[in-house]
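Good morning C.,

I know you're traveling, so I'll keep this short. The sequence:
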Amino acid sequence: MKVSIKIGDIVVILIAIAVCVFSILSLSTTIQGNTILTIESPEGVWKYPLDKDGTYEIPGENGLSIIGIKEGDAFFIDSACPNHTCVLTPPISKGGEWIGCLPNRVFIRIEGEEKTEFDAIGY
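The tokens, ready to paste straight into the viewer:
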């Protein structure tokens, strides 16, 4: 039994290797700069330092969303949405994390330095 490798086989193997390498590299998130909270809604974009505690009222599609920052954590305190899933979501504090209130179209995310760790490692 003779196995021959064709050009198509080599292309498939190279694509699989490239996907694996890209996946491993994308697991590590490194974000440079000051850590800030960015809030987006249909009314605009707001940016606040994550190291300063505060409460902010952000107008959304259905009404106000109230966003809090406390001890480096950002979270929804209240929002004008029917199920309040955003309010039940745990606080965020690391670069790249986000929470969204889809019915009210208000999104918060952390930008800046903070996270240089793997999200997952598989064997």
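Safe travels,
E.
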